[in-house]
Amino acid sequence: MDMRRVETSRPVLPNLHGHLARSFPSSQSLASSQNSPGASTPNSWAANPWARGTGTPETSPPSTRAHSPELKPKATTEDGNTSPVVGSPDTPQIPKAVKNICFVGAGFVGGPTAAVIAYHNPEILVNVVDLNEQRVAAWNSCHLPIHENGLLKVVRTARDGTLGTTVTLPDLDRAIELDARQPNLVFSTKVVEAIEEADIIFICVNTPTKTYGLGAGSMADVSAIESATRTVAKNAREGTIIVEKSTVPCGTARMIQDILRYHRPETSFEVLSNPEFLAEGTAVENLMHPDRILIGSAQTLPGLRAAAALKAVYAAWVPAARIVTVNTFSSELAKLVANTMLAQRISSMNAVSAMCEELGLGADVDDVSLALGKDSRIGPKFLQAGVGFGGSCFEKDILNLAYLASELRLDAVAEYWLGILRINEYQRQRYARNVVRELNGSLRGKKIAVLGFAFKDGTNDTRNSIAVHIIKDLAEEMPREIAIFDPGCARADILDEIQNSGLTQSQLERIKICTGWRETAQDSSAVCVLTQWKHFRGCQMGRPPKLSGTETKLVDLSLLQAHQHDSPTEMRIRALEDLARREQQSPIEDPLGRLKPLTPCPEGCKDCTLGIGSPEEAETVDWVEVAQMMQEPRWVFDGRNVVNTLELQALGFRVRGIGKGPW
Ligand SMILES: NC(=O)C1=CN([C@@H]2O[C@H](COP(=O)(O)OP(=O)(O)OC[C@H]3O[C@@H](n4cnc5c(N)ncnc54)[C@H](O)[C@@H]3O)[C@@H](O)[C@H]2O)C=CC1
Ligand SMILES: O=C(O)[C@H]1O[C@H](OP(=O)(O)OP(=O)(O)OC[C@H]2O[C@@H](n3ccc(=O)[nH]c3=O)[C@H](O)[C@@H]2O)[C@H](O)[C@@H](O)[C@@H]1O
């Protein structure tokens, strides 16, 4: 590594515009990128594919653009937040009243985020639009397109409105009247109409890694953002605030401004960055109680005013101290760095797990995590070793960040980030290799049972699941059958992922997707646990584990007291519901009877008959029964460290966990 070259390539001033301008393609950089090895392979991060000066995010602004005033001086508050200088001409005025919000993109993020915003702001009409008719139809039915705990109730409350009711509970000193709530959440395909009416538009479309052309396998594909922005540019009212909710390359807000200016040169729009930090499986909880809401804006009067308007929307339920406002590009960058650092923790523990296994001294990665997590500087979260991280975001966002570093000619920095992905790939390959090795180096004639396909528990999302990579590696060993069961995923989604994983026809024919663990484990030589569903811990572990959503909650009495005097916000109604559940000793979803009955599905509704994505109803694995139906010597390869090794060993299983002694 030529450190001197890296040093001298830095601009004299820390000037973002300079960096991005430099990354704009010249004919030379394009040519060298096309010649660079691996530039067109989707997994080209395996070796840094970006030779110095090659490739360019399509999103970068032209180098000739005038510098914008985004980086004006500002004050820093005690909590490190930046805010306009008090009393300066930059102080934002009272934010514009927001009456109508449009979400473009009704996916994993757009749908739940829109629903929670609508839920807490009953006076704002929230339109969620998508080009995908099927997805919109699902949002309008009782079979939402994504499985998230508590989501259906939030959607029903805002989408369908509620019934009025009187609440009388022994703990309340008087009856409380709850008025009927009017619907304020609409899902549709009417993209143009919704954009025309909006005061704020959230762009919430997909930003996958490019799979073609320049930067394939590394650069973010922002074509959906471009396309949505063009529709916004042509149809939005003057003064509408545009919010980039999608995770984007740093500098995208400027690309959005550019498109807006091109189509509407006479009209001014403010573009805000407001990245989303929810994790799938806990989306509603994360949206209801976010660690922080991050809003990036231009540090100009109109920019700060727009940020204040967005802040007011969140302030309906998020405490002000949790709403962080910064400049636009810090916000864009912070999102990529947040995901990269979370993934970095996982890769660190996975690296430790390999060491524990090879040491052969009994060092246990879970013990190491426990010890580390007690250090308040490290904290206990995201230290769980496993088969590696999956999902639609970590990998693409790390690639996105590394690509930016590479474009900035910071090769050492890019390499540093890419190391996280290398460990991730190493970990999952190591797992598959170990399975084959323990089964005497051959899977021929053997059946392998796979428990878990979703990239994590609590979700039906199969995108970029680690399971598909491991199944592919195992399928190459030509087993008799690979049987797969996941309590949360739809069969069609699993099949789709597998069919797109590059298996041959003969390998595909050996794969079977099952509807329960019995059928999966029957006559198998090994069970591979690849998702950390609680169901897989087994009913041997004392009391069956509670599925999330049924826990008895602590009642927030301060909210209840406030409720007796003020208008009932949804936060307060939730506190009332918690109280009612406690008194009824029942975890029912709607203890106050506010929800309107669901419109019945049409006759023969296929989602009703398939029972898609209902993990609450799925049966917990009975390992005693599994032991009886498996082939000797009954291998369990626990890729998530969910089973109780000692108990399973007592039942006659051979158990191998992650980071738990010699393989
Ligand atoms: N999935 C997750 O947990 C998180 C995702 N993100 C980010 O949020 C963004 C969206 O992610 P997901 O919701 O998972 O994607 P998704 O693929 O589930 O949803 C995107 C939706 O946008 C729609 N769409 C695309 N172009 C459109 C257009 N021009 N007009 C109308 N609709 C259009 C698609 O039909 C699709 O339904 C991505 O940038 C992602 O990185 C951020 C935090 C969490
Ligand atoms: O930008 C995004 O899309 C989101 O990405 C992640 O959320 P998500 O991918 O939904 O789920 P995580 O809980 O982060 O899990 C990601 C993967 O890491 C794995 N993981 C997680 C934690 C851990 O300790 N060990 C571990 O292997 C999970 O099993 C899963 O495969 C982040 O946690 C969110 O904050 C972020 O908004």
From TrEMBL:
Task: From the UniProt entry, list the residue stretches annotated as the region Disordered.
Answer: 1-91
UDP-glucose/GDP-mannose dehydrogenase C-terminal domain sequence ranges: 449-546
Which reaction(s) does the protein catalyse, per the Swiss-Prot or TrEMBL entry? UDP-alpha-D-glucose + 2 NAD(+) + H2O = UDP-alpha-D-glucuronate + 2 NADH + 3 H(+)
Q: Annotated Gene Ontology MF terms?
A: NAD binding; UDP-glucose 6-dehydrogenase activity
Keyword entries, A-Z: NAD, Oxidoreductase
Give, as in the UniProt entry, the pathway in which the protein acts.
Nucleotide-sugar biosynthesis; UDP-alpha-D-glucuronate biosynthesis; UDP-alpha-D-glucuronate from UDP-alpha-D-glucose: step 1/1
Q: Which residues bind substrate?
A: 277-280, 335, 382-386, 390, 456
Q: What is its EC number?
A: 1.1.1.22
Q: Does the keyword Oxidoreductase apply?
A: yes
**Which residues of this protein are catalytic?**
393 (nucleophile)
Low complexity bias (residue ranges): 23-37, 53-64
GO terms classed as biological process: glycosaminoglycan biosynthetic process; polysaccharide biosynthetic process
Q: Which domain of life is it from?
A: Eukaryota
Name the family. Answer: Belongs to the UDP-glucose/GDP-mannose dehydrogenase family.
**PANTHER family, alphabetized:** UDP-GLUCOSE 6-DEHYDROGENASE, UDP-GLUCOSE DEHYDROGENASE/UDP-MANNAC DEHYDROGENASE
What is the protein's given name?
A: UDP-glucose 6-dehydrogenase
Q: Which organism is it from?
A: Diplogelasinospora grovesii
What taxonomic lineage is listed for the species of origin?
A: Eukaryota, Fungi, Dikarya, Ascomycota, Pezizomycotina
